[in-house]
Amino acid sequence: MKLLAVETSCDDSAVAVLDEHGTAAAELVSSQLIHSTHGGVVPEIASRLHMSVLPGLITEVLEMSGTSLHNIDVFAATAGPGLTGSLLVGLSWTKAAAFALKKPFLGINHLAAHLHIHYNSAVEFPAVALLASGGHTMIFHMLSWEECFLLGTTRDDAAGEAFDKTAKLMGLEYPGGKAIDLLAEKGDPDAVALPSPLGSKKLPEFSFSGLKTAVRLVWEQGNVSPEDLSASFRKTVCNLLVSKTMYQAGRLEAKSVLIAGGVSANSLLRSSFNRECKKRGMSFFMPEIKHTMDNAVMVGRAALSALNSDPLACSDYSCNTFPRWHGKRLSPLSQ
Fold first, then answer.
1. Going from the N-terminus, what domains does the chain have, and what CATH number goes with each?
2. Cα–chain center distance at 209
3. Distance CA 30, CA 15 (A)
4. CB 198 within 8 A of CB 207
5. Cis preceding-peptide flag for 126 (omega within 30 of 0)
């Protein structure tokens, strides 16, 4: 079986061809670097750039995989959550291709897709998963790939958004997560005392708005180096993410801990989770760095998960985009 997956939820155009095991025969991501000059993603620009690059990207991936569009058995694309204009580009192209070739089409939930980057790994259940990105910070309890329940989310900003806005405050490049991570390696993580909003590890919810304000006040005083402030900020955010996730993992007797999303590329977060899971004898799964950001492989694996659960699974052509997800049970297929 050959599956073509498309991801255009924000500012990355991504395409992949996968086999029935979730292995990518070819994958490509085209990142829109123009947004760095604006300090954030401009939705109208993002959607127009998706339209300009997606057809060529699909052609190139098909050539790399040694197949043709007519040999694709299943089509899948992200339906949401994300930017409506961006989502429409990938979703519309994929539905049209599936309709023209009379092949199954699956509209995929972007959040579930991030977790499913680990679908072809030896994850033992029950598991606890942290999804941390520019738009989302959530903890899930997973009884299986089909049974995934939300434990808690952020009450305001996402962790990735906090990294980006803090980086912008300090005049660093966008996106800010990587910039702060690199700068933090040269700083003292104990140099600045920062608050930990909703700091109780027993509460599976997050708040980063107040932390951003505290960082701004410290920065405006002008008596701290960028390196020390970056290190202190990174430590505070990572401590919140790790302590809350690991508490839930212990409470729910999880056998595995998963992390996913752009923030899972953070070096301190990865090493901290690895250390804490080893202490508790839990398996730990983190994505390859290239798969921490939006990619089509995760979309394809989520589609395979849906098909393995129900070989007749498919989405209607009326499947539409949605900017936000407000559910409690997370499924690969868009609801």
1. 3-115+291-309 (3.30.420.40), 124-288 (3.30.420.40)
2. 20
3. 9
4. yes
5. yes
- HSE (CB half, 13 Å, CA atoms) of 225? 12
Which amino acid is it at 14?
Answer: A
Which H or E run contains 30? strand 24-31
Q: What is the pLDDT of residue 34?
A: 63
Burial of residue 66, with CB atoms counted within 10 A of its CB: 0-12 exposed, 13-18 middle, 19 or more buried = exposed
Sheet containing strand 148-153, strands side by side:
148-153, 137-142, 127-132, 256-260, 283-285
43 Cβ partners below 8 Å, 6+ apart?
83, 84, 85, 86
Q: What are phi and psi of 193, to 5 degrees?
A: -85, 115
- pLDDT of 33 > 70? The answer is no
Q: In degrees rounded to 5, what are phi and psi of residue 287?
A: -75, 160
What are the CA-CA distances from residue 8 to residues 32, 139, 161, 209, 306 (Å)? 11, 24, 19, 27, 20
Helices (H), 202-266: 209-221, 226-251
Q: What pLDDT does residue 286 have?
A: 98
pLDDT for 174-203, tens place per residue? 788 999 999 999 999 999 999 999 999 999
Q: CB neighbours of 44 closer than 8 A, spacing ≥ 6?
A: 85
Whether this prediction's pTM lies above 0.85 is answered by yes
Q: Is 121 left (phi over 0), alpha (psi -120 to 50) or beta?
A: beta
Distance from C-alpha of 297 to C-alpha of 277, rounded to nearest angstrom: 26
Question: Which residues, 6 or more positions from 33, have their beta carbon under 8 angstroms from its beta carbon?
Answer: none
287-111-66 Cα angle (round to 5): 60
Q: Give the tokens for residue 293.
A: 């950001």
Query: Which 3 state secondary structure label does DSSP give 1?
Result: coil
Closest CA to 123 of 298, 289, 258: 258
CA distance linking residue 151 with residue 237, whole number of Å? 19
DSSP tag of 71: G
User: Nearest 5°: phi and psi at 125?
Assistant: -110, 150
Which structure tokens are listed for 74? 């299943």
What's the whole-number mean pLDDT along residues 93-108? 97
